[in-house]
Amino acid sequence: MLRGSVSFIPNYCGKPECRCTRGHPHGPYPYVADTQEGRRRLTYVRKAERVRVQAEVAEYVRVQQGFASLAKLNAQIRSCFEELRDQHCRTVDELRRSR
Questions:
Q1: pLDDT over 90 at 57, yes or no
Q2: What are the residue ranges spanned by the domains of the chain?
Q3: Whose CA is closest to 11, among 33, 27, 32, 34?
């Protein structure tokens, strides 16, 4: 797995006579974007690594979605248990009235 996202970003070389200075950028080229210490970082993905990196990022996304599904299911289960508890639990006021 690889934490991040794949983005295709055009590049501008900055050479005065280059086509990119006239609005025709190079690329777009693949980059992996991630966040480290609150800063976004881009890392170029070589052509030979592209398929593997995209598969690793897709696996990370799939696992994160699984975690989100589990968290939602856990909240629903907890809610059911709390409802059961509330249905079968007396309050202190009920205890006092029964005396």
A1: yes
A2: 5-70
A3: 27
Q: Residue 29 class from Cβ within 10 Å (0-12 exposed, 13-18 middle, 19+ buried)?
A: middle
Q: pLDDT at residue 14 above 90? A: no
Cis peptide before 28 (omega within 30 of 0): yes
Instruction: Report the relative pairing of strands 26-36 and 5-11 from DSSP bridges.
Output: antiparallel
The burial of 20, by beta-carbon neighbours within 10 Å (0-12 exposed, 13-18 middle, 19 or more buried), is given as middle
Q: Around Cβ 32, how many Cβ atoms within 10 Å? A: 20
47 pLDDT tier (thresholds 50, 70, 90):
very high
